Amino acid sequence: MEFLRKIFDNAHEKLNSNEKTKKFFPLIDAFDTLMFTPNHVTNKGSHIRDAIDLKRTMMLVIIALVPCLLFGIYNTGYQHFRVLDQLGDVSFWEIILKGALVVLPLVVVSYGAGLLVEFIFAIRNGHTVQEGFLVSGMLIPLCMPADVPLWMVAIATMFAVVIGKEVFGGTGMNILNVALTARAFLFFAHPTKMSGNEVWVTGFSDLKGEKYASLINSANPQGIVDGSSGATALGDLASFMQDSPVLENTKAFQAKYSLMDSFLGFIPGSVGETSALMCLIGAGILLWTGIASWRVISSFFIGGFIMATILNLVGGNGYFELPAIHQLMLGGFMFGMVFMATDPVTAAHTNKGKFIYGFLGGFLGILIRMVNPAYPEGIMLAILIANVFAPLIDHMVIQSNINRRLKRLKTA
Amino acid sequence: MKLTVKKGLDINIKGAPEMVLSDASSKEFALKPSDFPNLVPKLLLKEGDTVKCGTPVFCDKYNDKINFSSPVSGTIDKIVRGEKRRILAVTIISDDKFTQENIGTKDYTKLDKEELKSDLLKIGLWPLLRMRPIDIIAQPNDNPKSIFVSGFDSSPLSPDYDFLMKDKSAEFNAGLELLSMLTDGKVHLQTRNKSNEVFTNAKNVQRNIVKGPHPAGNVGTQIHEIDPINKGEVVWYINPQDILVMGRFSLTGVYDARKTIALVGEGTSEKKYFNTVSGCSIDSILSSSKVEDNSRILSGNPLTGEKVEKNGFLGFYHHQISVLPEGNQHKFFLTEGWLSLGFNKFSASKSYPTWLLPKSKSYNFDTNLNGEERAFVVSGQYEKVFPFDIYPVQLIKSIVTNDIEKMENLGIYEVAPEDFALCEFVCTSKINVQNIVREGLDLVYKECM
Predict the structure, then answer these.
(1) Which of A54, A91, B37, B129 makes a 20 to 30 Å CA pair with A186?
(2) Residue A31 contacts by C-beta under 8 Å, 6 or more apart in sequence?
(3) Residues of A with CB below 8 A from B332's CB?
(4) Which H or E element spans position B274?
(5) Pairing of strands B146-150, B235-237
(6) Which of A38, A41, A50 has its CB closest to that of B348?
(7) Cβ–Cβ gap A37/B371 under 8 Å
(8) Could you tell me which chain B residue has the CA closest to the CA of A4?
(9) Residue A272 near residue A65 (C-beta atoms within 8 A)
């Protein structure tokens, strides 16, 4: 690695030799510190330090996201060929290729746009590039519909990094989860590309325009819509709340989207969110390495489960009657629980607060998902609300500690 | 009383000392005002003056009763000054005779509290007593609600106090007797379950048995568990070896600053104990062993010690010298850097596979930061190693924002920098927490006390 070290040392030297180029040091530094743990030594205080750093922490989250990414790629191809009714004709690799051609550009654009902003801010503010975006950059494509235009991803990412993070002071200072800020931005700015029945399966809107025009106009349109809908499972479910449900009852829903399919993820949805199994593998990695908080994950699940059970008991329509556990396997619940709610910066910081925060997120997530007339999902908004409440929750927890200390003084 | 500290972390570093004792003779000694936080010294002598053991060299400018005395007899060699003529050290060349300043032998145990205080102040023993809150030299006018003595050191590579104190019962008990005169409350002596008879036979103390990982041996942890400090209250503490100094003073009326220190760490060939005198030169301890090039020498332990040069001196409150390999190399990320598998890397987090290995495995540590300083990102990390009923991160943040009221509410009066040493060790964001706590304490001291 000597030659690589020399290259970096020379680059640093060249940059530093000129006053004008000096401020561009983050450009070299970012790659240098990526390839080499820097030679910084302790100075005061503890002279030895733990081997962990923020880069490793973030990289472990990315590794935990890899199962979701890979399955997302597969499922994107799978859903595409499913609506074409060509699943029998294509090989596994063709499915992967189709998915990769859709998903990887999203990843590239997300990282490109976000890191561009990060580098600009690093140079402007004269600090090194911080690692926070490494995870956000992977989360953003995974929580988008496959067919979202790339320019929208770029704009949403830039918006999220600038307004969601850098204006607050950068990594570690933000109030809202950066990836969800990006998603919420697009959700409100371009709802037609983020919701509805036509964005979840790649190529669906094009297909509908050309090839399906003839099919839909044919003698038996009902059968085709049933067999090749582009809606998400939750979209179908939400129609129970309307006058003309897509399916006649919960049983029919369970037949179309079996619990097993929902768990494994062979259903339409945002790129990385569909597979509860992959999210659980990610959760396993995060908990095994101690990166994510088990307090948040467990209380989030319990919160969602309790709300879904309450609505089960209320009943009255096909949506509310879907068993709680099936409800939690759908949509972004598991993905949000494992990867979004656990963001240590925007979650509650106190251990007790994490229980409350997680519970609030899960509880509100299912509530918003099921009891709103406009949109059949609520995890994103629920986590953002929980993010906003997290400082308040922490404040309460800390205040109780302060009161305990004051009480000790009085009784002493 | 028995208590168990649940949160904490034992760091197993290679380089523990062997139970071998040798003598070290130092020619040069020093008193360093920087060993005493918040002290502004006022010199009482000048270069070339002769001193005896117990001759005051400088005193506290704001409380001139507190004297700092020469540990040896000889002549004052140099007054080393830094920026703005700040005094960094007063060095003394020993004449190897250890002539004693004599303030008259008497039965100190018969004195009343104030008389005893004034004798301790006069001979320069007072700085051995420190106080919580603020973690500075005890204020002579205070009336501490208790005095704490930790009979063991749980920090990494720490000296074994059972070994240091062996066969020193007489001095120890004499010292404890003086201590018990200084407080209306109790003197608490904390030990492990099994400990030397010097501790088990100690008189005039309440002995408490402490279980659990580091920082179980820190007085801060013990005070918090046994007799927590509220605003306005004061607790004093003192190291067991310093009680021996007090004991010898009680028995003979002289300032006898001998102590036994440990030389530890992978950077040195001789890892063992040395008999020496407070303020000895580092060189006198290291001369007999081979020190690796590119090593860092610390006066004190690896978590809280102070960086010293080979021609430096042992800190006033330190009982060990640690030599660690310097970590000033770039490390390629896949082989030994941040993304390595790291089967030889210790981490309190579970992000390295070594958390699956037995806890007895010891590791090589160098002084590399293992990352770069960042804002707080990871939460819940400090809490795992911080046994106080205090929110460490929130306290740190209140200090950083100079919010004194919040600092008080969050418990700054109970903590000292050393209590945060483990937080600093485990910090993913590599924040210099101990330094922040020191600044917070200094601010609170200035504004509120």
Answers:
(1) A54
(2) A8
(3) 1, 4, 35-36
(4) strand B273-277
(5) parallel
(6) A50
(7) yes
(8) B332
(9) yes
Q: Are B54 and B100 in contact (CB under 8 A)?
A: yes
Inter-chain residue contact B365 with A34, CB threshold 8 Å? no
Q: Where in the sequence is the domain holding B205, given as residue range(s)? A: 2-23+112-252
CB-CB neighbors (< 8 A) of A344 in chain B: 377-380
Write out pLDDT tens, residues A148-175. 999 999 999 999 999 999 999 998 999 9
Residue of A nearest to B405 (CA): A402
Closest residue of A to B229, CA-based?
A409
The pLDDT tens digits of the residues spanning B131-172 come to: 999 999 999 999 999 999 999 999 999 999 999 999 999 999
Residue type, A49: R
**What CATH code is carried by the domain that includes residue B236?**
3.40.50
Residue-wise pLDDT tens digits, B277-299: 999 999 999 998 899 889 999 99
By the 10 Å C-beta count (0-12 exposed, 13-18 middle, 19+ buried), B34 is classed as middle
The pTM of the full predicted model, rounded to 2 decimals, is 0.93
Which of B252, B287, B312 is a domain's end point?
Answer: B252
**For residue B331, what is the enclosing H or E element?**
strand B331-332
For chain A, the domains span: 2-35, 54-194, 292-412
B342: chain A residues, CB-CB within 8 Å: 51
Q: Considering chain A, what is the average pLDDT of its residues?
A: 89
Give dist(CA A123, CA A109) in Å, integer: 21
Q: Is B329 exposed, middle or buried (0-12, 13-18, 19+ CB in 10 A)?
A: middle
Number of domains chain B is built from: 2
Residues A288, B370: C-beta atoms closer than 8 Å: no
Residue B260 dihedral angles phi and psi, to the nearest 5°: -110, 130
**Can you give the length of chain A in residues?**
412
> Best mutation site among A43, A44, A53 for testing chain B: the one with the most B CBs within 10 Å?
A53
**Continuous segment of H or E residues that includes residue A65:** helix A54-83
Q: Which of B324, B370, B424 sits opposite A53 (nearest CB)?
A: B370
Residue B170 C-beta-side C-alpha neighbours within 13 Å: 6
Q: Judge if B10 and B151 occupy the same domain.
A: yes
**Is residue B133 reached through a cis peptide bond, with omega within 30 degrees of 0 on the bond before it?**
yes
Mean per-residue pLDDT, B338-352: 92
List, edge to edge, every strand of the sheet that includes B2-4: B2-4, B206-211, B186-191, B146-150, B235-237, B130-132, B136-137
Q: Letter for the amino acid at A328? A: L
Residue B127 lies in a domain: yes
| Identity of the residue numbered B426 | V
